[in-house]
Amino acid sequence: MKITVFGATGGTGIELVRQAREAGHSVTAVVRSAADFPAGVEVVRADVMDPSAIEPAVAGRDAVISALGHRPGAHEPVCAPAAESIIRAMRTTGVRRLVVVTAAGHIEDSHDSFMTTRILKPLLWRFLRAAWTDFVATDRIVAASGLDWTIMRPPRLTDGGSKPYRTALDHTVPGGSSISRTDLATATLAAASDPATVGHAVGLGY
Prior knowledge:
Layout: E1 2-6, H1 11-22, E2 26-31, E3 42-45, H2 51-58, E4 63-66, H3 79-93, E5 97-101, H4 114-143, E6 148-153, E7 156-158, E8 166-169, E9 178-180, H5 181-192, E10 200-205
Parallel strand pairs: 1-2, 1-4, 2-3, 4-5, 5-6, 6-10, 7-9
Antiparallel strand pairs: 8-10
C-alpha cells in the first residue's frame, strides 16, 4: 500500500513508519521539521493545519494514518483541527481511507468495570481534560467525515515490545489498561487494510 503518516516523529508514528517499511509499504512521513527515518521513506515537511500544504502528501495514497497526539501541557486543541485539515485534503484529492489514533480513556463504555466508570475515568478527566476534550472532538469530526474511516482507541501507552493483545470493535477492551506503541502500530496498520474496520472504532489492550 501507499501510506501517508501524520505524527510520524511521535512514539507511535515512528513505529508505524518502521513497521510499514518493513512490510514493504510505500511510506510518506509528514513532519514539521527535519527528522531521520528508515531508508526509502519519503519525508514531506508541511504544516498539518494547512490543507493545501498537505494535499501533495495525501494525493494518490491508499491510506492516510494520523498518529498525532495532544501536546503535553497544551490547552488548545491539536488533534481535532488537524483531523479537519487532513479530511479537507483527502476530499480534495479523492483519497478515501483514513485511520486516526485517539484514545480509550474518554469513552464511556458498557464494558468498563464499575471502578473504571465511577472512579478512575472521572478522576482522570480532571487531569486530562484538555487532551480528552480534543479527542472527543476528533472522534466526532472523523465519524462525520463521510470517508472510509477507522478510529483506534488505545489505553495507556507504553514503550514495551510486542506481545499478544486484544481488540474489540466499537468497545473498549475489558481490563485492557495498557498497550505498547509497538503493538498499537501493528494493530493500526492491520486496520488500515481491513475493510471490516471501516466506520468503526477499534479498542485495544492487553
